Amino acid sequence: MMALYGKKDQEEHDTLDPIFGSLSEEQDLPKYQLNETPVEPRIAYQVIKDQLLDEGNARLNLATFCQTYMEPEATKLMSETLEKNAIDKSEYPRTAEIENRCVNMIASLWHASPDESYLGTSTVGSSEACMLGGMAMKFAWRNRAEKLGLDIKAKKPNLVISSGYQICWKKFCTYWDIEMRTVPMDMQHQSLDMERVMDYVDEYTIGIVGIMGITYTGRYDDIKKLDALVEEYNKHTDYKVYIHVDAASGGLYTPFMEPDIEWDFKLKNVVSINASGHKYGLVYPGIGWVLWRDKSFLPEELIFKVSYLGGEIPTMAINFSRSASQIIGQYYNFVRYGYKGFHEIHKRTHDVAVYLAKEIEKLGLFEIINDGSQLPIVCYKQKNGIKCKWTLYDLADRLAMTGWQVPAYPLPANLEDVEVQRIVVRGDFGMGMAHDFIEDLKRAIKQLNDAHLLFHKEKENKKYGFTH
Ligand SMILES: *Cc1c(COP(=O)(O)O)cnc(C)c1O
Description:
Number of strands: 15
Number of domains: 2
Bound molecules: pyridoxal-5'-phosphate
CATH topology of the largest domain: Aspartate Aminotransferase, domain 2
Radius of gyration: 24 Å
Strand content: 15-25%
Largest sheet: 7 strands, mixed
Shape: globular
Structural class: alpha/beta
Oligomer: single chain
Order of helices and strands: EEHHHEHEHEEHEHEEEEHEEHEEH
CATH architecture of the largest domain: 3-Layer(aba) Sandwich
C-alpha cells in the first residue's frame, strides 16, 4: 500500500552525498527538493543504488506472497517492453492480443464454460481486481433489486465475508459505502463458517466472498459447500445471491496442485474470480486478473470503450495508463512453463513448505496451524503450556539478524489472542535454503533460551494483520 507522505517525514540529514570520486562529488544533492542542475547518470545510479543497499534481500523475505525471482529472459523481455502502455490497444495491438490470450488461458484453468460469454481483464493486482469484482456485484445487485421493486435506499447494501478477509475488501466497502458483514472465525472455524454464513445474507447482500486461501494462515474456504448453501438459499427467494472467489494466491496455485478441488466456475454460483499474477502466477509485482463467468454478471455501465484498430474494445479498470510489461511477463511464464512447468515449480514449493512444517513441529515448541499441504504457507503458534520467556516477536527479531524476514502477528477478529508466525514459501525458496533456514531457526531459539535480558512484558500486543 502506498504511504501518504508529507513534510513531517523529512529526515534531519537532508542531503545525499555522492561517493566514488567524481566531479559532482563536491556537490550535495538535496533529498527533499529538486537539485538545481543535472548530475551524471552514473552518479544518479550509484547514489540511488547505495541507498537501497540495506533494504534486505527480497529472496530471504518469507513474509510476502509476491514474486521475488524471475528468469533473466523474462526480466529482459519485461525491461524491453516497459514503454508499452497497456491501455493503448490501437498502438499496441499485439500486446492487447497477449492480454487476451492470458485471459483465455486463465479462463480455461478456472473452468469457464465456452457456452457462457466469459470476460476478464488484467489489473494492477488483486486489490484492483477485487475492487472491479466488488463493483460488478454491487451494480448487478442493484439492477436485480430495482427490478424486484426493493427500496434500495432503505438500507446500505452489504457484503458477506469471513473475518479473515484481506484489507482490500475493507477498502472496497469503505470506498463504495457498503456494509461489510464479517462472519467471525474461531479455533474450530479457521475459515468461512459454513454453519453461520447464510445468517448474514439478506435482500441487501451484493454477494458473498469466499477466499482461496486466507492471507493470514493460508487456509481455504470451502467454496463447494458455500455454493451448495447458496443454491439452496436461492431456491427460496427472488433475491438471488452469488459468490465472488478471492483467489489472490490460490487462483494460480490450486489448479496445478489440486485440480480435483471444486472451487471455480465449475460451481454454478461462482460468478467472478480474481488472482494475483504476482503471487503464484510467478510475475514481479504488479499484475492481477479478474474474470466473470458470463457477461451478464458484469453490468454494461461499468464498461468503457477505448479505440482499437479503427474500432472499439471494451475495458474495465480503475487506472488508465500503465506499463504492459507485467502482462508480457505473465505471458512469458505461461508460454515458458506450460501446465507441467507450473505444476513442477509449485510441487517443489509445496515440498519445501511441508518439510519446513515438519521440522518446525519436531522442535516441540510450536503448534502448526497451516502445514503447507495446500497453499505452501507454514503458520504456527507457540504451544500452550510451554514455559518460554520469549515471544514470536523476539524470534522474528533474532531471525532478522541472519537476514530472514518472518513476520509474527495476532490473527484477525475473534482470534486476536492467537499470535502466529507465518512463512510464505515461493518458487525461489529451494530445499537448500530451507535447510539453512531451519539451522538458523534452531540457533535463534537456542540464543533466546540462553539470553538473560528481557525488556518487555511476557505478552506483547501488536497490531493484527500482515496483508500481502
Ligand atoms: C494478497 C491478497 C490480496 C491483495 O492482492 P494484491 O495483488 O497484493 O493487490 C487480496 N486478497 C487476498 C486473499 C490476498 O492474499
